[in-house]
Structure to design on (717 residues):
């Protein structure tokens, strides 16, 4: 199967025609430029605002080009937060650059339809398209001294992630992402009380203190377990689920009502009821099958390539219709790299928050405010 | 596009579930015929709500536009007030077009309805058949651009008659244009104006080493996936309609609209000696992936629009959809028979 293609350089600067000011990625914040002439950007929408609105206001050069296409993606499940909030965000965006075009990248088809009803065209782009298979991969020297666990659950320490459903798995590794806050400490205590048997990877590696884990460390941990877990009922997409697959882990998941189910059509993924016993039984069954990690990874990468091919075709079709440009992209690399840079910025921000939280909880609270 | 004539309406429709009401049907000549005839089957359609999936037989492009489809859906909604209609987009590109026109859709390429149990390598021995470098399974119509196959010396044609006036003239035109081509229909004793059965076509594909897809614009061209399920590599021109969704493999070649380029690509894929079983396995994997996600999207739509957590029992009810089109009375009778079956299944 053909891959996403070569390594074309990604446009990262934009010159203001009025001021001559050259804007680099650093000044653009979470707004990523995929190409110029015509301008194509990628940015995220939060529950209450869009990074693009701020960028258009604070750096007028962004709004200057006559032709531009802004790709938007929500960090949250639009269905849960309601389309009303999104509608007001999109209305503000349209005001900021009335001649520019918007294209929403939805986690699944229904979300795409919800957004389309707000008057914004939309295509489905699953998180799996952005999964970096050079980070998430099976390793021959897997654990490097790490203790083997039967299952891993990489999820935020929030109630929506339903950690309690892993209660019947005796050998369980937990990885927590997200920021460190007082609320979060409460959550960690709650999880410790319901899953006393679990190993908290962030704390084990941090000598008893929460330590945010780099991707390569998390990948090594994946290589020290047999099965990945996905137990929430309201994720936007759950990127860690795709990381499991790229690293060669079979998955036990509860009924997926979100985008993560896209890659669950394989025999090495078991969908079970919201029942700790059923989940533990499925974990045991998959762990005992000693599945070939390389084959799981290859199966995932095949459909990832397929999805990337489809997304590329759709972006170019949108480019022809909205910008009258024959070919916007020759491959999806600019989109994938832009999303990786946005994720990196988010990670860096969380690290700073964590440092502040550890050194001065009060300052952290006021900074957040 | 011909003017819609309710006295000559042909379509395919399936009743997927009676309670909640879920159907899938084809759009022909810009009409959702099933909705037009719905009042004749009150036992099925006389309900407050229902969910109806719609499939076009032609891609979104110059002839059929997203806005024309929006009008089609509006008209269907007037036939069945309170019911919801969702179009199938053959790929994310069509999803963009439809969403840009405010039309509700899910991504579903109709090639996933092809019955993989019929289309497979091997098949029965056929008398009088030698092996051909390439096969073109296409209706004898101008948009199929048979002329682009003229550079292929060893060519097998599987064909059905054109629609409308001048059928025989079109048949003779293609015959004259491709004097070396052999008609599978004639070898099998099927009249040139008749359509071969899918089983016969599948057997025929065993005698070819490569499949052709040469139109610029049409529907998804299910024949393209049928070739691959039978283990044939595919040479195609650039196209609109959705068949290129599955052209992600080394055994699929997309070339310019040029007879020499087509012939060269055929020679190239033949020289690569692909394994038929491996081709079938690769395309079957993508079809399975698309079917899985289609069923997820259907389940979500039923949940969101009908407030039901009912699940469709696997892909079975959809397999083979659009294999045959039926006159309106036959299509509606089949729906009623299915409704009676389903009602019987739920009786205590």
């Amino acid at each position: 199967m053909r891959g996403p293609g070569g390594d074309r350089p990604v446009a990262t600067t934009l010159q203001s025609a009025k001021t001559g000011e050259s804007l680099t990625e650093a000044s653009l914040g979470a707004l990523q430029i995929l190409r110029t002439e015509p301008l194509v950007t990628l940015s995220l929408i939060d529950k209450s605002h869009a990074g693009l609105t701020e960028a258009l206001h604070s750096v007028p050069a962004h709004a200057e080009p006559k032709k531009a296409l802004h790709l938007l993606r929500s960090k949250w499940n639009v269905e849960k937060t309601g389309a009303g909030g999104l509608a007001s965000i999109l209305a503000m965006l349209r005001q900021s650059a009335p001649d520019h075009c918007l294209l929403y990248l939805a986690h699944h088809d229904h979300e795409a339809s919800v957004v389309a009803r707000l008057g914004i065209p939309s295509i489905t782009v699953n998180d799996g398209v952005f999964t970096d298979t050079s980070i998430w991969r099976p390793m021959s020297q897997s654990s490097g001294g790490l203790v083997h666990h039967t299952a891993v659950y990489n999820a935020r320490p929030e109630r929506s992630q339903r950690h309690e459903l892993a209660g019947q798995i005796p050998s369980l590794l937990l990885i927590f992402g997200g920021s460190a806050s007082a609320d979060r400490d409460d959550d960690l205590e709650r999880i410790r009380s319901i899953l006393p048997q679990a190993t908290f990877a962030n704390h084990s590696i941090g000598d008893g203190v929460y330590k945010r884990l780099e991707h390569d460390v998390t990948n090594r941990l994946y290589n020290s377990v047999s099965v990945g877990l996905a137990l929430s009922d309201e994720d936007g997409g759950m990127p860690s689920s795709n990381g499991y697959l790229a690293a060669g882990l079979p998955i036990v998941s509860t009924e997926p009502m979100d985008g993560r189910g896209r890659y669950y059509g394989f025999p090495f993924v078991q969908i079970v009821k919201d029942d700790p016993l059923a989940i533990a039984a499925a974990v045991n069954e998959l762990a005992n099958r000693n599945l070939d990690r390389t084959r799981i990874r290859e199966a995932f990468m095949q459909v990832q390539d397929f999805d990337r091919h489809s997304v590329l075709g759709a972006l170019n079709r949108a480019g022809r219709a909205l910008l009258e440009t024959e070919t916007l992209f020759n491959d999806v690399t600019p989109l994938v790299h832009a999303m990786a840079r946005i994720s990196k910025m988010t990670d860096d921000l969380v690290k700073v928050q964590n440092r502040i939280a550890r050194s001065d909880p009060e300052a952290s609270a006021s900074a957040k405010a | 596009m011909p003017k819609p004539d309710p006295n000559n309406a042909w379509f395919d429709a399936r009743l997927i579930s009676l309670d909640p009401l879920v159907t899938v049907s084809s759009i022909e000549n810009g009409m959702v015929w099933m909705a037009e005839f719905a009042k004749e089957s009150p036992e099925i359609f006389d309900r407050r709500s229902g969910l109806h999936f719609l499939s076009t037989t032609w891609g979104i492009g110059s002839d059929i536009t997203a806005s024309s489809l929006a009008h089609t859906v509006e008209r269907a909604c007037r036939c069945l007030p309170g019911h919801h209609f969702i179009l199938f987009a053959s790929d994310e590109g069509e999803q963009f077009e439809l969403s840009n026109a405010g039309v509700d859709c899910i991504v579903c390429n109709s090639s996933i309805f092809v019955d993989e149990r019929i289309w497979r390598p091997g098949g029965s021995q056929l008398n009088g058949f030698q092996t051909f470098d390439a096969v073109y399974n296409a209706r004898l119509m101008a948009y199929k651009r048979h002329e682009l196959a003229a550079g292929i010396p060893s060519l097998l044609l599987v064909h059905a008659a054109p629609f409308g006036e001048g059928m025989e003239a079109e048949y003779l035109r293609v015959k004259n244009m491709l004097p070396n081509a052999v008609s599978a229909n004639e070898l099998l004793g099927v009249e040139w104006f008749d359509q071969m059965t899918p089983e016969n076509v599948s057997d025929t594909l065993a005698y070819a080493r490569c499949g052709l897809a040469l139109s610029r614009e049409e529907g998804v061209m299910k024949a393209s996936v049928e070739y691959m399920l039978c283990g044939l590599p595919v040479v195609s021109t650039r196209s609109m309609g959705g068949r290129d969704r599955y052209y992600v493999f080394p055994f699929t070649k997309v070339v310019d609209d040029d007879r020499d380029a087509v012939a060269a690509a055929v020679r190239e894929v033949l020289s690569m000696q692909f394994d038929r079983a491996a081709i079938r396995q690769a395309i079957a994997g993508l079809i399975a992936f698309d079917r899985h996600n289609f069923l997820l999207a259907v389940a979500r739509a039923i949940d969101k629009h009908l407030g039901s957590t009912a699940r469709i029992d696997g892909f079975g009810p959809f397999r083979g959809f659009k294999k045959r089109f039926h006159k309106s009375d036959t299509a509606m009778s089949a729906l009623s028979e299915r409704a009676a079956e389903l009602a019987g299944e739920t009786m205590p």
